[in-house]
Amino acid sequence: MKMSRLRFNFGFLLEADFGTIRHIELDYPSIKLSDDLTLTPLKGVITATRTTEGIYIQGQLESAAVLECVRCLEETVVPLGFSIDELFFYPPQSAPPGENRVGEDGMIDLAPLARELSLLSMPTKVLCRPDCLGLCQECGANLNEGDCGCAEAAIDPRLSALQQLFNSESQDQ
Question: Minimal CA–CA distance to 64: which of 37, 89, 86, 91?
Fold first, then answer.
């Protein structure tokens, strides 16, 4: 298995007095967190603090991901920002079930946590721009690139009475 670039050795901090702090600056032009997520870039500062229970990591990270617009399906760069605020238990056997732990070798891999937090910070509805016109329902052309030439959609026969009402109102004015 390939080693994560967000894997850090905190063995020195485990040997330090409680309350010892280290700041780590992250500045990756591009980093692949998993097969399904690459962040470009990943920047920020994390603070690792030795506590009685292990190592507490906190920080603010900024990044961006290339996602697909929900209307036109074009790729667009979406800025992301998220906070890390996590305790990694040491010794590992002291960790409650499901909690993060420092490896026996003093290593902490932040990639799974960064992946989870970045996915949670992504918008549920990605738009390439607020006024995106989307795709033509008839031919599938991207309407942001111009009119596709398709005729306007026929009115649903169940709504034709409403269309007649609108037409008569516009003629009355």
Answer: 37
Question: Which of these, 112, 114, 30, 127, lies nearest to 78 by C-alpha position?
Answer: 127
d(CA 82, CA 121): 6
- In tens, the pLDDT along 113-162 reads 999 999 999 999 999 999 999 999 888 999 999 988 887 766 677 877 77
For 108, the 3-state DSSP assignment is strand
Residue spans of the domains in the chain: they are 7-121, 143-172
User: Alpha carbon 47 to chain centroid distance?
Assistant: 22
pLDDT in tens, 50-73: 999 999 999 999 999 999 999 999
The residues that bridge with 135 in the sheet, in sequence order, are 142
Longest dimension (CA), the chain: 86
Q: In one letter, which amino acid is 55?
A: I
